[in-house]
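User: I'm writing a tutorial on reading structure tokens. Could you give me a worked example: one chain, its sequence, then its tokens, then a sentence or two explaining what the tokens reveal?
Assistant: Sure. Here is the example chain.
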Amino acid sequence: MTVDIPAMRTRLAAHTVIEDLVDQRGATIRSPFDRLLGRSPLQGECLVWYHGAQGDIGLGAALAKLPAGWTVFHSLPVGAVRSEIAHFVVGPGGVFSITTQTPHGKSIWVFKRLLLVAGYPTSYLHDAEYEAERATRVLRKRMPHHGVVRPVIALVDPGEVVIREKPGEVKVLNARHLNSWLLRLPHILNPRELMQIVTLVDDPGTWGAMPQLNSRDVMARFAALEAAMTVSRRRRVSWISAGAAIVLATVGVETLIVVHLVSAMLATVPRPF
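And here are its predicted structure tokens:
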């Protein structure tokens, strides 16, 4: 039996990650007491995946605003072990593999061969280059004269971004500036070349894609997960607020007792004539 796999353009941002998150959430057992206290449905690495998925979804929504002539793909499988390209953009300015990173207010320092997050070295530049190289190899299997895929790192909600040295291959920028940067690039692909590349990228056979949940199911499951995360966060905040109120009330009562004691002691002191 042949299974029809939808075109790659139907895949959503963070498609594969959401599937993995939903599976992990199902494996996480929370007792009624855990739910009452607001224990998160996701723990450890899964929580990192969740925030990363939110960043990818936000960036995907921004990329959807690119004008006609630009085509955006998401969650393209490349390599083994469910590895994927988060966003893949084809337009007059070229072909780009875009990696999303979510430093959440941390400072970013960029050097020629190194990217630091809050002072700590990362493998972001190497990973982005490797991802673009793999994508280039995949496309050249069917289009031998295809140009090089350019790697981009889009920083979601970063703190200060300091470019000390521009990396040789990877473009690093704030995700808010991604669209405007793409649109300013000189045109290197004509309409015929764009059509050929988009057709190639859109073909599931190019990537060896396997069947996945359809887009509607993916978004429904992620919406349910977001709702559960919101409920747990609100309950934690409520417990923290209640604890703070109890502490303040206790401190207030103790202060009142001390005031009464001091007043009583002062009342026993003889007044000077």
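What the tokens reveal: The first strand starts at residue 71 and ends at 77. The mean pLDDT is 84.
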